[in-house]
Amino acid sequence: MLHVIPLGGLGEIGLNAMVLACRGELLLIDAGLMFPSAGMPGVDIIVPDFTHLKRNAAQFKGVVLTHGHEDHIGALPYLLDELPVPVYGTRFTLALARNRLEELGVEADLREIEPRSPFKVGTAFTVEATRVTHTVPDAVGYIVRTPEGTIIHTGDFKLDPDPIDGLKTDLERWGEAGEEGVLCLLSDSTNSELVDETGSERVVQTTFERLFQETKGRIVVAQFSSNLHRVRHILSLCERTGRLVALQGRSMVRNVALAREMGYLQVPDSLFVHIDSVPKLAPHRVVVLTTGAQGEPRAGLTQLAHGDGPVRLEAGDLVIVSARPIPGNERSVGALLDQLHWRGARIVYAQVEPGVHVSGHASRPQQRRVLDIVKPRHFVPVHGEVRHLHRHLTTARESGMAPEGLLLAHDGDVVTFEEGRGRFSGSVPSGRILRERSGSGVVTPETLLERNRLAETGMVAAVVVLRRDTQALVAGPQLSGQGLSPDEQGVLSKIALEAKAYFEELNPQLRGDDALAREELVRAVKRAFKQHTTRRTLVVPLVVRV
Question: Could you tell me the domains of the chain?
Answer without folding.
Answer: 2-196+359-443 (3.60.15.10), 201-355 (3.40.50.10710), 458-545 (3.10.20.580)
